[in-house]
Structures are given as structure tokens and as C-alpha cells.
Amino acid sequence: MYILEDGYDEFRALGGARKWWLNKSLSSLQADFRDKGGTLILRRCGRQKAQTVLDDVIEETGATEVYWNRRYAPFEISKDKEIKSDLRDRGIKVETFNGSLLVEPWDITTNSDTPYKVFTPFWKALKPSYSRSHPKGVPNLKFKSSIKSDDLKDWDLHPTNPDWSGGLEETWTPGESGARSRIQSFLGDRLKGYNANRDRPDKDGTSGLSPHLSFGEISPQTIWDMTRSAMDESNGLEEDGWAFLHEIAWRDFSHVILFQSESLHEKNWNDRFDNFPWQRDDQSLNAWHHGRTGYPMVDAGMRQLWQTGWMHNRVRMIVGSFLVKHLLQDWRAGEDWFWDTLVDADTANNPASWQWVAGSGADAAPYFRIFNPMTQGEKFDPDGKYVRRWVPELKDMPTKYIHAPWTAPKSVQERIGVKIGYDYPEPQVDHTSAREAALEAYESTK
What we know:
This protein has helices at residues 16-35, 50-61, 74-89, 119-129, 166-171, 176-189, 194-197, 210-214, 220-233, 238-260, 282-289, 296-308, 313-326, 331-341, 349-358, 373-380, 385-390, 410-416, 431-443, and strands at residues 2-4, 42-44, 65-69, 93-97. The protein is mainly alpha-helical. The strands form two sheets. The protein has a two-stranded parallel sheet. Strands 3-4 form a two-stranded parallel ribbon. Helix 14 packs antiparallel against helix 15.
């Protein structure tokens, strides 16, 4: 059974990209159940509580046992506890499991028995102690095909008028089989060299598993087991394997932070930033949305996001830093845009990562660490391959100028048919001046 909680006030409505993925993922899951002779029951909450919808299905099926995987936002935990307590009071057996994390937020704690707030000691505690726990006592499945289910098409999850999902269709295969195919491809072809290639957006060096993880199509426990097996079977994968699992653990750490936060996507983890003088400039924000900032590395990332619903992690840091530090826009504006456009934007990773970039989060990058988009491009996209792919106006720009095209002489611009300021925008802001303004704004919060 899948309950869509899209109309209940406490739950954040899904963004457009995640609706598209959910539609495909549920369709795939329906097919998997049909192959086993069963049916996936779909129900939509609307203005009802999830418990009311669940009670209806329990009554229709005569179910005596209910199972689900746990959630970790404080309001989700309280609601799930309420449902569990009510069902048990009525004599219904309830079991819940960890289906989405390596370890749950309360499993690994500091010496003072509190959840971790800094990643490195969390990783040091997790790495040597982790072992996968397998659920026991899962009952034999007995399917009832006569139970009413919503028609997935009636949920209107797929975009229309216009249908902007063509790039997502070309990039992704939602569902468990897509997740399995992707991890097998990664472990076989790209795990070797991962540590060196993961920061290079011009290379296919990452796993691309984040949306599959976010939707529960593969668990981090499975990824850990398969990666460790690959490391055991092949010499020379130790460094790359642990570098990859280190990134998987960052996802767990984001959930640890979510568990400790009242509202991670709305409130600064570090309340010192409550007084930060953010500016609201809709014109600048719109240019950032559409990859028209005049900084090619930033624009390439934003256009990759718009086209595919995903962005390379190194570039996420670059575009995030640019928004909050060059443009002095509130990190929440960026988090909200990513929430709507990323296929992997979940309730923990998306706001935790934005607060990390902004300097307001747990174990965050210090605010005065301001990425230079030109030098970041030169370091991580040295030949301009990534920029040329996503900013085709600059495909013929000489590599010497690709990350600062406004510095190209007029003769070069004329030769390649690109006039900076007309065919491609001049920089929104001057890097040096913007950096000084950001540091001045930061000082004002002290």
C-alpha cells in the first residue's frame, strides 16, 4: 500500500521533479506486484489524515498486521508513533523497520549519549561498527485483488501543459530495476577511480543513485554490502570504495541533523544567521534559476538541473555558494528551487546541504569560504567539456576563456559568433566586489 500525503497541512508538497519520479516509481512497483499476482493499493489523503486512510484499508482487508519503514523528521516520528499506538490499542500487530538508512539517528551517539552534530566523528564511529541487520519474521504474502485502489493517472503526477519531462525521461529509469542496473554499472565501470573523478562534472564519475535512494528503490544497506563485496573481490578498490561509502554516510548524517531539527528547511540550524542581512532580488534570482548569471560554471549547473532534474554534487556547492554569497540571496530561496526541480531532493539532504553551503548548518562550511566560480571551473572542468555541453552558446569558446568568457577579446568573440552581453550575458556581479560585500554582511552578524 502507498499513501500519498499531499493535502495534509503538516507535509511539504512534493516538487514537480519528484512528482514525475514518484509517478514512474509507483508504476514500476505496480508492475512488480502484478508479476507476483498481487496489487499495489494506492490511496490519496486529500484533507484526511493518513491514519484515517489506513483504517479504511484495514477494515476492507481484515488485516491483523501492519508493517512500514520508519521516517525521521520529528513531525513524522510523532505521527507514526500516534498511528502505531492506536493500532496496537486495537489489537493489531505493528512492526516498523529501518529501510532507508545505514543506522538510525539514535543508534550511534556521542559519549554524552546525544546524536552527533559533526560528521567526521560520526563517520569514525559508524565505519568500524556498521553491520547490516536483516529483518526477521516477515510473513508469507497473501494477496487480495479485490481491494479498491486509486488510479495512478488520476493523481496527475506527470507534468502537462507543458510536459517538460523529456530530459528526465532520457536520463533516468525510476524503479527498483533501474536502481539495480545503475549500481551494477557503477560498481563494474566507475567505482575504480571514484575518489579522483567524483569532483569532476566533466566525467561520468558518480553513481547517480541519489534519487533511487531517496525513493526507497534501493537501500544504503544494500549499497554498502555490494560495495564491500566489490572491494573484497578486486584489488585496488579500497580507497575508492571507502570514498564512495563516505558519501553514502553523509546522507545518513543529514538524517541525524533532521532528527534533531524542528524544521530544517525553514529555520537556521545556527540561529546566529537569523540576523543575516539577506537581500531579495527577484531579477537576480530568476537569472540564477535559468542559468543566465554570466558565470559559465554556475550556468552549466543550473541548466543541467533544469534539463535532467539532477546536478553534479561539486557544482551544487558552486551554484549554492554563488547564490548565497555572490548574490546574498537567502539559502531558503535556493533550497526551495532545488526542492521543486531535483529528483533527489528529500526532506533531509536538501535543506541540510543548503545550510552547509550557507554556513548556517551543522558542521557547515564557514561562511567566509566563498567559491570562486572561475577557479572552480578551471580546477574541476579544465577543458571546459561540462560547460560546453550545458552552455552551448560557448561551445566554440577557446579553453583559455571558457570560464571567464567576458575576458575574450572582441576578435575572438567575432570569430566564434558569440557576443558577450548579447548572445551570452555578462557577469551579474563582479566576483571580487561580491566577495567583499558577503564578508561585510557576515561581519554584521557578529
